Amino acid sequence: xxxxxxxxxxxxxxxxxxxxxxxxxxxxxxxxxxxxxxxxxxxxxxxxxxxxxxxxxxxxxxxxxxxxxxxxxxxxxxxxxxxxxxxxxxxxxxxxxxxxxxxxxxxxxxxxxxxxxxxxxxxxxxxxxxxxxxxxxxxxxxxxxxxxxxxxxxxxxxxxxxxxxxxxxxxxxxxxxxxxxxxxxxxxxxxxxxxxxxxxxxxxxxxxxxxxxxxxxxxxxxxxxxxxxxxxxxxxxxxxxxxxxxxxxxxxxxxxxxxxxxxxxxxxxxxxxxxxxxxxxxxxxxxxxxxxxxxxxxxxxxxxxxxxxxxxxxxxxxxxxxxxxxxxxxxxxxxxxxxxxxxxxxxxxxxxxxxxxxxx
Amino acid sequence: xxxxxxxxxxxxxxxxxxxxxxxxxxxxxxxxxxxxxxxxxxxxxxxxxxxxxxxxxxxxxxxxxxxxxxxxxxxxxxxxxxxxxxxxxxxxxxxxxxxxxxxxxxxxxxxxxxxxxxxxxxxxxxxxxxxxxxxxxxxxxxxxxxxxxxxxxxxxxxxxxxxxxxxxxxxxxxxxxxxxxxxxxxxxxxxxxxxxxxxxxxxxxxxxxxxxxxxxxxxxxxxxxxxxxxxxxxxxxxxxxxxxxxxxxxxxxxxxxxxxxxxxxxxxxxxxxxxxxxxxxxxxxxxxxxxxxxxxxxxxxxxxxxxxxxxxxxxxxxxxxxxxxxxxxxxxxxxxxxxxxxxxxxxxxxxxxxxxxxxxxxxxxxxxxxxxxxxxxxxxxxxxxxxxxxxxxxxxxxxxxxxxxxxxxxxxxxxxxxxxxxxxxxxxxxxxxxxxxxxxxxxxxxxxxxxxxxxxxxxxxxxxxxxxxxxxxxxxxxxxxxxxxxxxxxxxxxxxxxxxxxxxxxxxxxxxxxxxxxxxxxxxxxxxxxxxxxxxxxxxxxxxxxxxxxxxxxxxxxxxxxxxxxxxxxxxxxxxxxxxxxxxxxxxxxxxxxxxxxxxxxxxxxxxxxxxxxxxxxxxxxxxxxxxxxxxxxxxxxxxxxxxxxxxxxxxxxxxxxxxxxxxxxxxxxxxxxxxxxxxxxxxxxxxxxx
Lengths: 360, 691
Fold this sequence. Notes:
The structure holds two protein chains of two kinds. Chain A is of the alpha/beta class.
């Protein structure tokens, strides 16, 4: 695995060696629910050959405070299962899920209900709205379950309705709304209890592409206001790139690689990950700092850009100025110089067309 | 061409030969024709002994329960009888309005006025009071069992067969059981109707709870629902529509059973009224009273199904919800207003006798006129059907062809040419269509020549079991064998065959006619629009009532029974055929159109093969409806098992009645499982998913 970016903030949620096995007697493979085993790969193989199905194998990751952590994988890779293990909609076979340092898996039913009522919110792929409740009743439903009185809970619901932009739709029923609007209701409902951890299970996969893009923007806007700690599940690599602070790629129930999107793109651990990064428009993912090389000539007269400037916005400038551009970090110090040749080299890495025969 | 004769064909061919051999051997070995009497297992006597023991030792318990149950019935009855009809009628109309709107309210008003003016209001209220008690009991009981079965697989495995039994064993068979345990009185009707009406509630509860999407459950859990909150506010709320459909079905079942149970008398309700009028041969009166039942059934059905549809129609409900307070207010005001009004205008309290209007006499006279003037025509229809269809099926061509019936004596050369002709047709089918059809033709030819009731029982046992095995696999085959075996060893085989004979003719006629009408309706919206209300009416009509017009014209007898069964069993045949043809995958139809199908090709080569699984389910329902009606048709004089059940009830011979009832249930279940397996098989071939 590649090196993770240093933790900027505290860890909010943490999965430690989580396993989920389906079958007759899944517990037989673990000692007292301890998921930390010497060789997870070997164990997975043993389990699969003894008529059990491995849904999650030794999954470990940390989600930091107010970070968007994306879990990406194809269908059947176990990404939906792991988010359900975190929320205990599915009971993990072994491992730990630490929320604020406390193991969620050890909580009693009553404690679990309290956690779900106050600390976790979840958004579902096919929305999971109650068809018999209208928009505001749906959003206030978690509050109603907590026993909060009518007036207060509608006032609270009204606030989140505003947040997701559904004003004026309060008395509509789910079947009268478009897919995008329904998911807004789902989002609003999950936010109504003001959770600290926000779990989104493929929230936009059921929407058509234009709406999806819009909802992603909306989601990022909401996050810029609320700063939740988020686990976001998706099968769409582009979507992951758009929203992720950090991401994990899953295959066959196990995590293949964790890191910042750009780490995954620049240093894929194997062909599986490389396959995803292939269609990525590199010029929009890479930023100036990724292509800059140490300056060996004087920097005088060079233009200066910030480290996180996307490459595609620099292409025009570099075409005109062969000397390149100085890239500076946030504190003003110069990281290095980016020249047209660096950019071309970086882009060449990312394209998988066979190199042309060049005659001399 | 020999590859078309597969293993199955040789098996079948062997069975045909065995059958022929058995028929030939029949005259020489008596036990082939009738199962030897001294080998009959006296199940009936054992049942009676158990029953006597129960009554002797536990009678006090049942009597106590009976005494307890008597009170709520009396209470409701007292209230319904004490209230002026105008008050009750107003409340009914209000409920109808809330459930479905003005049209239903008007219909309800008309129905109430009809009951009042015709003079059957008190009887109707007696029936209603029984329904009003039995429905909540059935719903609570059914819901509870349904929830249990939903959560426990083991419970489900125990409950499901019980439901099958309760719904297939004819009510007459267990009416006596209840009568003996709980004593004479209205409680019998109550318990019978609860027993009969809770199964649909169980089924709908299970289906409803199962159909709640997983994500809705998960979102409920993530909203922090406790176990109880999850159940009531998520599962039950989401399943509400299905649950209300269950309520609708339970109510209808309850009403029909209350009517049937009135056969034991002493209830002074509308069912008894119909029955006693039929017995007195006063057809006008019985039809008028029957109409009361039909109207009641229709109103109750529309109201409950209206409530069910409404519960899925959230938008509408939302608007009407704000009016809820007004509704209560209106109900109270109307109640008081009509109550006070009734005190001043006696006609609103109790409709005066002299204002009652009954066209019964006129109806009777015109009926008499009709029968006298069209006697020859009616007789001709009856004779034709009897001589050329019913009799040959029953006792075979060899028994029925005589100068008196067909106009000539059956000679050897007749029989030989019949055999040769049928063999030729069979060979032709084997060559041109397929071997299964050929076998079917051969078996049919044998049946028709020798007659269903004259066939040796081992041959029939073999054919039925083998067919069930071929269609549904080992379990169904064995089940059929043992089921029919039970009928053989209890000595009711001859009567069972009489039931099968009457029912199969009715089913074949219903299915051919019904499928034809269904095909027509599928292609023609006007026909469809005309048929739909007729079907609705026939389906909600309590079975009793359907008998009346046929008895009026054709008197009692098998032919009348046949017509009544056809009238009832034709409904699912029409419905399923139309539904199947109208809901085909559009892509296939368009593709066929683009290939240049003519209309006829489209129907026969594309639509019907694709719709066949649905049509087979229709056949399944046709058979079930046919058997249900067959039981009631015992009242107009048939000779099969249903008659034994009925006689068992009137003679107080519980064992005999129950055994015959179980025999009918066995036949029904075999027919049900076989046709369902057949439909599933077809479904997997054409890959059309039903519903």
